[in-house]
Amino acid sequence: MASGDGGPYQRTVITIFSLWNTMMGTTLLAIPWTIAQAGFTLGIFLTLFMAALDFYTCSLIVRMAQAMREKQIDNKVQVVEFSDVCRYFVGPKFAKATTIISLITLLTAAIAYWILMSGFLFEIGVSIREFSADNATAFNIPQLNSSISATPKLTAFDSIWTKKITPLLLVAVVFPLTLFKTPTFFTKLNSAGVVSIFYVIALVAVKAAEWGLNFNFCKDPTLKDFSLRFPALTGTMTLGFFLHNAVIAMLNPSNPATRIRDLGIGYILVLITYLYIGLGIFMTFPQNKGTIEDNFLKNFPSSDVVAFVARCGLLLQMITTFPLLIYITRLQFVRSLLGKDDTLLFWRILLGAVIITIGVLMAIFFPNLGTVLRISGSLSGLAFAFTLPCVVYLAYLRREGKATHSVVWSHVLIIAFGFVNFLLQFLI
Q: Is the pLDDT of residue 188 over 70?
């Protein structure tokens, strides 16, 4: 069977796995924290709600892309990005605005990556120091990090290896990688990053079995069914289920008849993974639930071998993914907006230097991953997950004469939700 591009359709299993792998990003490590912020019952409900809402708006993009293909009888116009759909149904100015918003989304993702990579590198260095020490007990079961633990005696290593140094050290490794003209090498290498995700899934099972169930509302007053800090979850989970600016390209090789179904299965698998990790850590965490970090690996001490391996794998995965973010940013900014040749060395150096500089400054002076994730997630959601898909869909319905009042108002409510979700991030 031939695809729209003349080749065979991509197998359903490959499509679903790609969707699952793509959505598994930095949010994966923040899920237990988001549930702690929202409360147990409300956290589960809002996670389900955000998955359903993001899936619906993402399916609108897929449906509009298919409608555009059906309108293009001569098949001269290729549908590659969501901006192509916006250009067709709304206009070129709207398509340019879509590209600008996408660039903002990519920049915030790059910042989150740099904060995480810097933290991982710092903890890895500390672990290596501890493992190599004469009195190291690396293979004993370590205790969780605790804010009330005694302050350790500072050494010469501690004065040199700091959280303000590791963001700078990363530059020497990562910046040269951003200068590649094409991302082919990193695309192939990054596909192995799924091993890190499976390792994190296994890590949760091991730690949950080690800790046992620690979930009793009567004995633990810090446990809550709901909390007014729930916007931390809705903002973060918008990013966790965010696929909107890549879904067309990812589903292009697949069978048009099964695209919505495959997308739905992909979202269900992501939802199950998030709930497994979030509830697995939250319900077994042996300390105050409010002490769960926005990156739950930070709750494990540097001497924990299992956590050390996870940090190494995730750091390697992010180092191979970061150049891809830079490449996509360069492609959209230089080629799409400026109409220039993005392969020129000048643009490769300039874009890489600017984005990395912003990432370094944020990692040094504001390394708050949870805040970056929820604000960037709510901003991305406001634009790409809620506003743009609904606007394009309503424009399509108006063309077809199917824009009923109930349909219009239901999609206006989705846009309003995205706007409120963004504003609430600044009130908690």
A: no
